[in-house]
Write a structure and sequence with these properties.
Number of helices: 6
Distance between the termini: 76 Å
Strand content: under 5%
Number of strands: 0
Amino acid sequence: MADTTATSAGASCMENMKSYVRTQKGLILAAEIFISLIVLICYAASHFGGYSAVAIIEMILAMIFFGIFMMEFDKQIQLVNWVWTDLFRAGIGAGLYIITSLICVIRGSGDGALIAGGVFGLIAGLLFAYDTYTIFLQIKSTRQHTAASTDDRV
């Protein structure tokens, strides 16, 4: 007899992934992984491969957070504030991508792969900045901040 528990667990994981990619956050994380892979390929094809470290690190971090949010480990592991951690990840990623991409576009005369990686890196920087903005809006909307009353007539 075949072991049906392994296939149902795999199907459940695939269904979780399909349903999570349909959400806004899942689509943004999947796009971050994809654009980081494109930037990594462009940087690896260029003469200056040292810029690929940003693409590798940001792609791995986006994959980790995709897995954590897809499997809903953020609701199970309360020790870490996942929203703020994701905000810092996306903000630092946006800054690093924009800085390294501008360097690559300015420096890349004669190296088409470096210029292409810089252009895709700028797109990735904008995508990470948009992710930072959406996370900031999420934090702002969940914060229940009410001002103290200054009325002396009470």
